[in-house]
Amino acid sequence: MAETQVRIKWQSLKAFMKELFLRLGMSPEDAEIEAEVLIWANLRGVDSHGALLLPWYVDNLTTGVMNPKPDIKIEKETPATILIEADRSLGAPVTVFAMKRVMEKAKKVGVGWGIIRNVTHQGAIGYYSLMAAQAGMAGLTFTCNPPNMAPYGAKAPGVHNSPIAISVPAKRHRALLLDMATSVVAAGKISLAVDKKVPIPQGWALDKDGNPTTDPRQAVILLPFGGAKGSGLAMMFECLSGVMSGNPLLSPSLLGTDAAAAKPSEPKPRPGHASRHIQNSVVAAINIGTFTDVESYKEHIDNLIDGIKALPKAEGVSEIFVPGEPEWRTYDERSKNGIPLPDGTVQNLRRVADRVKINLPEGL
Amino acid sequence: MAETQVRIKWQSLKAFMKELFLRLGMSPEDAEIEAEVLIWANLRGVDSHGALLLPWYVDNLTTGVMNPKPDIKIEKETPATILIEADRSLGAPVTVFAMKRVMEKAKKVGVGWGIIRNVTHQGAIGYYSLMAAQAGMAGLTFTCNPPNMAPYGAKAPGVHNSPIAISVPAKRHRALLLDMATSVVAAGKISLAVDKKVPIPQGWALDKDGNPTTDPRQAVILLPFGGAKGSGLAMMFECLSGVMSGNPLLSPSLLGTDAAAAKPSEPKPRPGHASRHIQNSVVAAINIGTFTDVESYKEHIDNLIDGIKALPKAEGVSEIFVPGEPEWRTYDERSKNGIPLPDGTVQNLRRVADRVKINLPEGL
Q: How many domains does chain A have?
């Protein structure tokens, strides 16, 4: 099944995204940041967190599930910590704000640790951790949503496949950027198998009754990576984000006390979820200069990268990659040659352009 | 192969450990803490980190690889961070000290983040994270040593199977305590297979030439859990501990600039390691009260535990456990009935007692 793909300049696609968010009521500053985080995902090849999301964002922003004009409040603050109520903001503006604040704290007292409560989709969270690395710090971001993954030993959802992103700066090399979910695979890979009409491997997911399945259309419950380990990490991420913010998202769903079930008038929850989209998130920055010389640090990271890449390769492996490296290559290639958009995504962009009455991006 | 096992009261075994450390030159305070952390591991059933280690500790303490009288220094300090030079201390005294300091910081500014440089074996690191949970905080500990695990795509060691421990308090339930290595299995499980003369599953480890092996005697290179994910986490833990402390442990080994190779007079490095035992470690505490009400927090954690445990079980599973729960059960059972010691461990205890001229524990 050959698929038509057009290439579109990132500047043109980003301008389209920004215009869309403006029409949906976001401020120019917020629309700019949201478009920036989405286009960054597309540039890095993480297309599941890029333009693909626009129709879903439009649905959520027009029904009020995502709030285009949130009343973002700093609820609690100490020299090293901050608790931010996001008022159902789209993720990028509030998370960029939060990361800037924890970086200021790290500059002053060595580390900054923030929790964002009641935020919606944050896009590719690696973006926020990278902000810290680009400022010569270490950055850490993780999130938790309502259950979509079976804890180890269970056959029903109980934890979320919470992602974590950690980034540190290098000197000759690009920043290291680990950005991973705690499931065997991200939900996007299952959607891709649906689109491609191919089965998924055993061990990726369960069907709605908790039975193992290789049919991607039946696969609605994710499985944790590394069994008890991925499951345990996911559970602890909720303890450090949702529960710590006073807004737990797993236990209300587990105990049937969830007041946030999606209303019939709202967009259908995503597979595996019962409630409207919601998440809590931790963002943290560690000031490297508090501990060691930043330039030496970056050189050591270069050495580490060089050393890992020079190791003898396992059979069938043509190159050893460090965290974030494959995505940096895609970033460079797409920055130059444009972002390839599958036919389905182009159709969706046409639909949203028509719906909110804006021009299609140049080149479409 | 039926193995004789005696049960010994934990108080008696702990007193023996303390006496041993005193004879090896540690201060009474340090000997007490070291014995406490070791006996804690035995009580929890983590026998690989308990009395089993004593002969190895004796070898390292008598050759100066581990320093019984370290000159522990606070090298750098800010309101939220601390860098501690451990001077090759045994792990427990300096890590307990570090965790107390970061908890004080968390009490004052919301979070405390410490790095311990140049420490030796820290035992079961869950102990330190649990200290924070017992004080109504969240605790985080992770470490990195020289390479013993193949990064994803490589067939030679490049990262360490760095463990991480996260703990948070509950109310009716025991504290949640995730304590896991970033390898598929801890090295101890491979040693156990050697002892039992049984093969190990494919995917646990490689032989010295980087070939997959099921022979535990050939298995010297660990493999990361979850492929690129466990491998990436392990690499980032070095970036946040060793490299951040100015004492990188992976890159010198990878680039052949490691000045710490074990001398012939020193104890043989452990399988997969080229250098004498050394590690760096992060300990952090997050003050829950900075973000939310601590009592409500603990109740939410109880709810989360109840909810997870009540989920429908996967086939063949008799009970769903939350992180740390199986070990708490063992802890209660062994606190009451004593610690079972395999015959091999008893022989080793006799040998070290004879060597340092102390009495065997009561009951042996």
A: 1
CA distance A41 to A49: 6
Q: Is B36 among the domain residues?
A: no
Residue A341: the pLDDT is 92
Write the ipTM.
0.96
Selected residue of B229, B238, B288 to mutate for chain A interface (largest A Cβ count, 10 A): B229
Angle at CA B340, nearest 5°, toward B334 and B342?
A: 160
pLDDT value for B3: 54
In the predicted structure, residue B261 carries a pLDDT above the cut 80: no
CATH of the domain at B211: 3.30.1370.60
Residue A22 resides in a domain: no
Residue at B2 is within a domain:
no
Type of residue at B208 = K
> Could you tell me the residue range of the domain that residue A217 belongs to?
71-292
What is the C-alpha to C-alpha distance for residues B177 and B301, in angstroms, rounded to an integer?
A: 12
How far B310 CA lies from chain A's nearest CA (Å)? 9
Enumerate the residues of chain A whose CB falls inside 8 A of the CB of residue B297. 243-244, 246
Q: What's the confidence (pLDDT) of residue A1? A: 43
User: Is B187 a domain residue?
Assistant: yes
Segments of chain A with pLDDT less than 50: 1-2
Sequence letter at residue B83? L
Classify residue B79 by its DSSP letter.
Answer: S
Which residues in chain A are closer than 8 Å to B76, comparing Cβ atoms?
A: 290-291
Partners of B140 in the beta sheet? B166, B284
In angstroms, the CA A287 to CA B244 distance is 10
The pLDDT-based confidence of B191 (bands split at 50, 70, 90) is: confident
Question: Residue A140: CB partners within 8 Å, gap ≥ 6?
Answer: A129, A132, A164, A165, A166, A282, A283, A284, A285, A286
Asked if A293 lies within 8 A of B246 by C-beta distance, the reply is yes
Residue B272 has pLDDT above 50, yes or no: yes
- Sequence length of chain B is 364
pLDDT of residue A124: 96
Averaged pLDDT score across all residues of chain B: 94
